[in-house]
Amino acid sequence: MKTHIANRLVQLNQQFYQTFAKQFAATRQRIQPGVRRVLDETAPTVNILALGCGNGELAQELLKQGYVGYYLGLDFSQALLDVAKNSVWDAPNIAYTRADFADPAWDRHLPATSYDLVFSFAVFHHL
After folding, report:
1. In the chain, N or C: fewer CB atoms in 10 Å?
2. What integer is the mean pLDDT of 40-53?
C-alpha cells in the first residue's frame, strides 16, 4: 500500500474513534468468550499490558475478579481513554496512557515494568 494511503487510513480511523468514542464504548460492554477463558486462567497478581484497551472493559472485568496486579492500558484515542479512566478512577493499580501504534517508537514512553501478559484484540487491522 502506498504510504500516503496508509497514513490517510490511520488518520480516518483516529478521527472516527475521537469523534464517536462514547457511542463506540457503549457498544463494547462485554468480554469476548476467548478473552474470558484467558481471564479465568489468569492469576490476580500478574502485570498486564493491554494494547488497544479502548473503553477499559478488560480492566473493569479484572477488578470484578479481584485483580491486584498492575495493568497498563494503551490506546491512541484520548476520548476512549477518558471513558476508561472514568470507569476505574479509584483503582491505583490501573493506569492508562495514550500510544499511537502507527508510530514505530510507540513504546518509548512505557514504564520500565515487565509484563506477564499482553492483550491485544481488534487493534492491528487498523494499522
Report:
1. N
2. 93
Cβ atoms of 60 and 50 within 8 Å: the answer is no
pTM for this entry = 0.78
Sheet of 48-51: strand order equals 94-98, 71-75, 48-51, 117-120
DSSP label of 121? -
pLDDT tier for residue 77 given thresholds of 50, 70 and 90:
confident
Structural domains in the chain plus CATH codes? 3-126 (3.40.50.150)
- Measure the CA–CA gap between 46 and 117, rounded to whole angstroms: 7
Classify 55 as helix, strand or coil: coil
- Nearest alpha-carbon partner for 126 in 99, 97, 101, 103: 101
Written as one string, the DSSP assignment of 14-50 is HHHHHHSHHHHHHT--S--HHHHHHHHTS-TT--EEE
